[in-house]
Amino acid sequence: xxxxxxxxxxxxxxxxxxxxxxxxxxxxxxxxxxxxxxxxxxxxxxxxxxxxxxxxxxxxxxxxxxxxxxxxxxxxxxxxxxxxxxxxxxxxxxxxxxxxxxxxxxxxxxxxxxxxxxxxxxxxxxxxxxxxxxxxxxxxxxxxxxxxxxxxxxxxxxxxxxxxxxxxxxxxxxxxxxxxxxxxxxxxxxxxxxxxxxxxxxxxxxxxxxxxxxxxxxxxxxxxxxxxxxxxxxxxxxxxxxxxxxxxxxxxxxxxxxxxxxxxxxxxxxxxxxxxxxxxxxxxxxxxxxxxxxxxxxxxxxxxxxxxxxxxxxxxxxxxxxxxxxxxxxxxxxxxxxxxxxxxxxxxxxxxxxxxxxxxxxxxxxxxxxxxxxxxxx
Length: 378
Fold this sequence. Notes:
Residues 350-378 are annotated as: Disordered. The protein folds into 3 domains: 17-183, Orthogonal Bundle (Isoleucyl-tRNA Synthetase, Domain 1), CATH 1.10.730; 193-239 and 316-376, no CATH class; 242-311, no CATH class. It has a 3-stranded mixed sheet. Strands 2-3 form a two-stranded antiparallel ribbon. The chain is 57% helix and 6% strand. The termini are far apart. The protein is mainly alpha-helical.
């Protein structure tokens, strides 16, 4: 395929290898061929991908040259911050996944893991570091790893970086595959939670600033906040409680790990009704049932996909610790004067929201989904 259409001389939709090299260069042609697709589907060489590769690789060379020229300004010492650990872990994951993809001759997958995802991790790291700056050793490790991972696809590009920029001895072709520590999947999950939480907080901030009527109908936070210096009060509930906890406990007992199937919904709901009856909440069962059905479906799908850990009452990491370790990032991302992280299960913490505490009832936090309240900074 050429630009998503059948390559054919009769229609004029055709390029020889020599023409592609003359038009895009050998490096961009190889990049686009690797990105053309895996598996048994027809490969699709796309001109936009080749042109984008030229721009992207050129931009990467410029970034490396600028960083190496200002190498002395990078933060020294061993990786120690939360952002350092996340970036180091992302590199370990990229090394493992890219190696597997190359072994399976899945070149598009290798390009995704060893270039696109690694670039995204670097960009996120650069943003997360803020005023403290990036760690010197980690940045050089990234350049080394990135060069080795892209070498099978773009050997000319990798060789230039290896010899001219990194001043390495010998050829990158014979440098070998980079070593990696065992990836920390819990840390990766914690970082995804952090990034998702920042996106969620930004949406809540916009709703409060705009006083969205549409959001009000859905019961979300819509308290109007004047623009200016704002303070964010972020509330976390690290454990499911109430009917959600009951649902998860029932799902744990009704899940067959071998077949990865659950008992029928009628059986699950019947047990939930009995539990609520003992707690004196049977009268509210119809209302609770409407709320719990989407929750049950989501958790069942998640358990079938990743296993029984999806049914735990708590996340595998401390949400409060993750958010408190990244308050500076949250402030910068949301443009806040101040950020405070509290536990929604602590009455003293809830009282600090003052007249805005009712928003915690309207939009209660749950594991993986904190609630933010924004007030004028005094």
